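tool_log.txt
---
The assistant was asked to compare two proteins side by side. It first ran the structure predictor on the initial sequence, then on the second. Raw inputs and outputs are pasted verbatim so the downstream comparison step can read them without reformatting.
(1)
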Amino acid sequence: MTSNRIFSLSLLALAVLAACSADVLAQPGGGRGRFGGPGGDVTGLLQSDNVRAELEITDDQLADLQSMGDDLRNEMRSMFEGMRDLSDEERRDRFQTMREDMEDIRAEAESRMGNILLPHQMARLKEIQLQQQIQRGGLQGALRGPLAEELGITDAQREELMAKAQELQQEMQEKIAQLRKDAEEELMQVLTPEQQSKLKSMTGSEFEVEQRGFGRGGFGGQQGPGGRGGRGRPQGN
């Protein structure tokens, strides 16, 4: 087994922690300026070869991160033991108590990671994480919580950002729809007239499904109209 594979497996607990805590804590009052969130938890970023290369992670640091992953995996395993045997109500109650436990484990992970990585490595990791948040969730999504406070975003700016994001989202939807239509028309030219006619009869009359926007975080997410990857059904000429 390669060292990269071992590293990824050792940090599996951290990735699970990021995913679970994001779901459990994605409720009012759940967040406390944590590392994670849509767009790349730092623990997930550390599984990337080029991120570790950018940070110049040493073999000793890698070993310490693996050990940390093992410890946190054991904590997570203990936390979820017996969940399958609980009733729905008991499971909801357990998740309520797990919210604080998740925050404690996350804080522990961040503290230990801060002791493993050098200050400049930790600073660079946070920069990369913020870049990922902006790329995947959009600037509107990133400018919330602690970041908004740090930049001094005013209420007026926040309202303007939301209004502008909605405006741009509509423009992007229209442009994407036109690009998709143009692409489909070009692709249809590869088919024979008989094939085009048959495809049109198979798809039936045109129907537009109402879309909810771009991704989870609103404007700037990865998902476009038509669901994941922006797929839509072929349309005839």
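(2)
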Amino acid sequence: MRLLVALLLLCVPGSLSLRGPSTVTGAVGDSLSVECRYEEEYSEFHKYWCRQPCFPLWQRTLQTSGPEVEVKSGRVSITDHPEDLAFTVTLESLTADDAGKYRCGVATMLKEEGLLGFLPDPFFQVQVIVSAGDRQLAGKSRGQDTVLHPPQFFTPPSITASSSNSSTWTSGSLSQQQGPLLGSAHFLLLVFLKVPLLLGMLGAVLWVHRPLRSSADRQRQSIYENQ
């Protein structure tokens, strides 16, 4: 009968002789502590902390060595406080890989007399949850709504300055080019309108004076012949 009870207790992930939180939460980079409380009859036994599954049972991830003595392995430490009937497990510098199921237990296997020595260790299961970070947790706890703003385009000062300079240069160069263009138009007007007019007037004058010159030549020739 006792053997049947022992097998049933082995399948139960908790024990009435050991109590503690079923779930603990911490942020990446932070530390968290788990306090496991036990009955006075287990004050002289070693306590341990391991990640599930903890098989074989005698292989502990981390185990106490005495009262008020901190045992540390990497980022995990465990300390037994017999006067408070509790032991504390601390995980430092949490990472996402630390999330999972752990066992908080008392090492009683094969230490009690009789058939009770084959009973499984009293333990309970702890679920460790590791969140992304404090900022995201703070935002979720406040319940703030996300406000979407329209995109704003930023123009670097250098581009703005060059744009203003280029616009100034363009306007200045246009104003400077307008003068030569007007002068060229006036010159072309003189060439195509005034010059032909002057040439026409000069041709008319020459045409008028040409008959007079011919008659004068004939008079001189007749006078020369008469002499």
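---
observation on (2): The chain has two domains: 2-132, 186-213. The longest helix spans residues 157-226.
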